[in-house]
Amino acid sequence: MNASTMIAAALTGVFALSGCLFSGNSGAQNISVAESFEGGVNPYLWRASLDTLNTLPLTTADPVGGIINYDWKSYPDAEGERIRATVYILDSRLRADGVKVSVFRQVQDNGQWTDAPVDQATSVQLENAILTRARVLKSSELS
Predict the structure, then answer these.
(1) Which of 37, 43, 51, 127 is the most exposed place for a label (fewest CB within 10 A)?
(2) CA distance linking residue 78 with residue 4, whole number of Å
């Protein structure tokens, strides 16, 4: 099993871990996802993207432009491989085509990292996990 397949499998189950409310210091009240978000993209897709890919190291996050960049990460079960991802939030509405995930993979050969192909299903699985998490976030706030 390569690193990109492992991360898709591992991260697909992660979306249910975090709650839909942010909490500040001990005296602050909880603030909903939509109320706390001032970016130009859908707040549920934004939060769901951060939740779903939380095992990858975050490099940059631009809520106005809707781009989240993650840095390279290697996994013990896939030595000599590493992956990174970029998430694009494409809409201010919660829509199936409102998020795109690009996954990049490299393999190490004689100490040099070289680009390697990624199964297209990996990006689709991550997009579906983000959409599922976003729907959970939204329905939690509505109930």
Answers:
(1) 37
(2) 9
Q: Within the chain, where are the H helices?
A: 3-12, 33-36, 43-52, 120-142
User: What span, in angstroms and rounded, lies between the C-alpha atoms of 82 and 73?
Assistant: 5
What pLDDT, on the 0 to 100 scale, is given for residue 1? 56
Place of tokens 């602050």: 28
Quote the CA–CA distance of 140 and 143 in Å, as a whole number: 5
Q: Are 55 and 10 in contact, with CB atoms under 8 Å apart?
A: yes
- Number of domains, the chain: 1
| Angle at 137 (CA atoms; ends 63, 47), nearest 5 degrees | 20
Write out the two tokens for 84: 């990174």
DSSP 29: P
Structure tokens at 76: 């013990």
Averaged in consecutive runs of 10 residues, what is the pLDDT profile of the chain (143 residues)?
Answer: 51 35 35 51 95 96 95 93 97 94 96 95 97 95 77
Range of the domain at 65: 3-142
